[in-house]
Amino acid sequence: MTHRIKVAGLQPVQLLAGLAGIAFIVFGVVGFTRTGVGDWAAQSYVLGFSVNPLHNTVMVAVGVLGVLTALGSGLSRLYGWLLFAGFAALFVWDLMITGILAQNPAEQYGNPLAVNVNDNWLHLGIALFGLLLAVMPARRKLIEDEEPVVPEPRSEAFRDERDTPHVEPTDPAVSTTRRTEPFDREPVTREQAVLDPKTERVSKDKIKH
């Protein structure tokens, strides 16, 4: 009996990716209710986090991507790597924007996402969550495969018995009698044929002249 290891059903990484995607979408939609969608310079707060329309758009897009990648375990792990790389880079940029890091090579771009100190730690947490998704092991199960039943080869004696044609025995005495019976009769004379009318059925070549 052989054994195989197979990924078992819905994986925890898929569930977490889907829930994270829904959370991102909800956060972005709530942000739009605070900032609106017409004024991209508007700024507001959601649970102490600074948001603007561009920040809300990014959150909704990340959420939709999470829901789509939750359809497969491999895609969910890829989604985790994207979260880790994207929000880790954003965290470093946030530190530059908020002045925690002295140097800011992207200072000319300003603060397009309207981040504050609270956003820094939010983005760091999202990056660590993405790393967790990327390295989360799959839940697997052991499957036993039954070996196919192979019929045993027939013995030589059985094969010879089946392959030899069957011939019914015959009785030599009966067969010999049936072959010689017409030729053992004595020829009938003309006088006998006249006296006994029954012998008229005998062929003429059997009448003894």
Q: Could you explain how this protein is built, in words?
A:
The strands form 3 sheets. Strands 1-4 form a two-stranded antiparallel sheet. A two-stranded antiparallel ribbon has the order 2-3. Strands 5-6 form a two-stranded parallel ribbon. The protein is built from 7 helices and 6 strands; from the N terminus they run βαββαααβααβαβ. The chain has helices spanning 12-35, 53-69, 73-97, 117-135, 156-163, 172-180, 190-195, and strands at residues 2-7, 44-46, 49-51, 140-145, 188-189, 207-208. It has 209 residues and is mainly alpha-helical.
Key structural traits:
209 residues, two-stranded antiparallel sheet, 52% helix
Write out the strand line-up for the largest beta sheet, numbering strands in chain order.
Answer: 1-4
Order of helices and strands: EHEEHHHEHHEHE
The proportion of strand residues reads 5-15%
Category by helix and strand content: mainly alpha
Number of helices: 7
Radius of gyration, whole Å: 51 Å
State the total count of DSSP E strands. 6
**For this entry, what is the oligomeric state of its chains?**
single chain
Q: For the report, how would you describe the main beta sheet?
A: 2 strands, antiparallel
Percent helix:
40-55%
Measure the end-to-end span.
93 Å
**What spatial form do the alpha-carbon principal axes imply?**
elongated
What are the segments in which pLDDT stays under 50 over at least 5 consecutive residues?
179-183
Query: Kindly state the mean pLDDT as a whole number?
Result: 76
